[in-house]
User: What shape does this take?
Amino acid sequence: MRLWKTILAAAVLALAAGSQAFAARTDLVIGIPLEPPHLDPTAGAAAAIKEVLYANVFEGLTRIGPNGEVLPDLAESWTISDDGKVYTFKLHTGVKFHDGA
Assistant: This one.
């Protein structure tokens, strides 16, 4: 019986020591299940498109802040028509489209 108590105590101590080391880590690793088949986000529904393309290739007019608010990104400001159907964005100075326009 004493052997089992010793083994149990050792296991509890090992788990406690491991959890402290795990809690001290600050990195986050995200696995992506598959690669996007192409770089056109409108032509496919691969699970990796959002993570790979939107986060690393494209920049948006706006972005979502840490509290869920809409913040400017490429757009400096924007207005919305009274009927909510027309959005007009003012881009930051120097922002260009992929074709240079």
